[in-house]
Amino acid sequence: MAEFPASLLILNGKSTDNLPLREAIMLLREEGMTIHVRVTWEKGDAARYVEEARKLGVATVIAGGGDGTINEVSTALIQCEGDDIPALGILPLGTANDFATSVGIPEALDKALKLAIAGNAIAIDMAQVNKQTCFINMATGGFGTRITTETPEKIKSRAGWRLLHHSWLNAHGYSATGPL
């Protein structure tokens, strides 16, 4: 059995009832992977879990959620000091998964988890607005948040983020040309 470095999955609280995710984690544990799981409940949880991951000595911290979860975990990682900073892995569980899609992370949970744990780390660019605000994907000036909070979950899951974003921009007088 191959040896894999330990990892810590920081899971968005909205994904706790995801049975396929539980099955994927159990399958990978059976293959010999050590996967610690922590669930976020409120602001600041991701930063606390990143610090816990460093104390555990894990090689990878996996952000399990959407773009917001990825942003919160990556911000916590970039604020770490020292040489023992874990790599960022991504498990796409959001509505749009814009960043995960753009870097080619598979949608299949077991494949995305395995890639996060056993794949090769690559450098990515991050933008830092001030000492506490970082982002790796995009800054929207509030548009994305407004769409997300004002759109019922049922519509988001059916229509998909790209269509919703495109429609909202057009409805509010903004140009939304390009592919959906």
Mean pLDDT, nearest integer? Answer: 81
H/E order of the elements?
Answer: EHEHEHEHHEEHHH
**Full CATH superfamily name of the largest domain:** Probable inorganic polyphosphate/atp-NAD kinase, domain 1
Report the strand count. 6
The biggest sheet amounts to: 4 strands, parallel
Spans of at least 5 consecutive residues whose pLDDT stays below 50 are 175-180
Strand order of the largest sheet: 2-1-3-4
The level 1 CATH classification of the largest domain is Alpha Beta
- For the record, the CATH architecture of the largest domain stands as 3-Layer(aba) Sandwich
Shape: globular
Query: By helix and strand content, what is the structural category?
Result: alpha/beta
- Number of helical segments with 4 or more residues: 8
Classify the helix fraction into a percent range: 40-55%
Beta content comes to 15-25%
Radius of gyration: 17 Å
Q: How many independent structural domains?
A: 2
Query: And the CATH topology of the largest domain?
Result: Rossmann fold
Straight-line N-to-C gap? 43 Å
Describe the 3D structure.
It holds the Pfam family DAGK_cat. By secondary structure, the chain is of the alpha/beta class. The C terminus is likely disordered.
